[in-house]
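Exercise: predict the structure of this protein bound to D-mannonic acid.
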Amino acid sequence: MTNQKDIVMKTLVALNQANLHSLSPEISIPTYDRSKVSTSIVHIGIGNFHRSHEAYYTNELMEKTGILNCGICGVGLLEHDRKLYNILKNQEGLYTLVIKELDGTLTPKVIGSMVEYFLAPDDPHAVIEKIAQPETKIVSLTITEGGYNINEATGNFDFSNKLIQHDLLHPESPKTVFGYLTQALKLRKTRGLKGCTIQSCDNIQGNGDVAKKTLMAFVEKAEPELADWIDSHVTFPNAMVDRITPVTVAEDINQLEEQFDLADQWPVVCEPFIQWVIEDDFATGRPAWEQVGAQFVKNVVPFENMKLRLLNAGHSVLGMLGAIHGYKTIDQAARDEDFKTFLRAFMDEEATPTLGHLGDIDLNKYKTSLIERFQNIYIKDHISRICLQSSAKIPIFLLSTVRDQLKQQGKIKRAAFVIAAWCKYNDGTDENGESYEIVDVMSQELTRAAELSHQDPVAFLRIKTIFGELSEDKTFVEVFVTALKMLRTKKIKECVAELNIKLREN
Ligand code: CS2
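Solution:
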């Protein structure tokens, strides 16, 4: 029981600039003078991942070099970002990154690299102006896989999206990243300014290329005369980004209060592992992130493939199987022997053959370390986070592997089983009868297709915007249908255990 005396004696320190030196000495604080930081990066999408990754690297860099011209201006694009925006404003851009070591030790570090913040819906013009400032050299993005607005069936930009239509009609008050970038780049051009770099930090194959392709599609419609200028003044480097960063829960806030007497309204927790591999293609210079561990390479494709098809796909495997079984976190699913065996075999036999030449990367070591990372019991990465917006993730993480394996007549049974599990997942209830919410822009279509698939198993694959031509691939359809039938008649653990034996034999 909590002692009344303890409650009275505990004084929490609120996180803000003035209090930095009153924090417990176990918490590291920025060693540079934040009042001297100037911004050259505008980041759109200020969620947890940006705060555990790019903002962290940038904080490390400023601490190491004392060069302070690479501060970040964070932009919340959506009304949904208001809560975080208000908290950041209150805390003067400061937040605690709590690195959870593999043995459970917490390493809290206050990050100071974000020194300005905007909530776009409050003042769209201010955001456009900020991006158009001569000092802004990089606009980085974490807008999620779905944020690039691609129709998977056609591979093209989706102009039917209502927000895109709004941005075409009301260029001065955009709602999407495409509208903002177009207006800001137009101002840069009109003012005779230099270009800038648009740097995607999302989990998408060729994320820079995709950012360029989608922005150009929008520009061609909205401001066709701007296209050539962008082509010659703006670069879009591809990058692989990595750090498992779960959703912040009340317990994380409480833990900081209890263990460190720190009141932070929205800390970020993450694993110790971090990686950023970037193509060195920056229009007007960049921070020397290599000084703090980022890798600059000519060709990032092998790194992206490896990460998306092993880590992210691995998450989807554990997420879908785990959700159906009733597990709540990834570590629970990753510690389940049946699921673990299944995952490793999926990685070795289905994903690895599609990865091509990976230079001197030790793939075995990478896969083993992934499984260890997934098993980190302190991270508590919720399966609900992994499964949300699967309609945008599965095509990138899993269907790409299926397509490549089909081309080379490789194995696809485990991937197809996970896709069938995704169909079952959309029933909305786990095997214990507990229901969960399907958080997905396509939730209605997914739920409906899952319902129909009880009578007609192929119904799920007919969602063209997800499966495209795969719904007509005989081999894939057959394997999927067999898997779905199995899933509808047996418990998931039974199916997985059976497949682990059956598939090992051939
Ligand atoms: C996850 C990623 O969203 C997902 O499904 O796989 O967020 C993953 O945790 C990160 O890419 C890790 O770098």
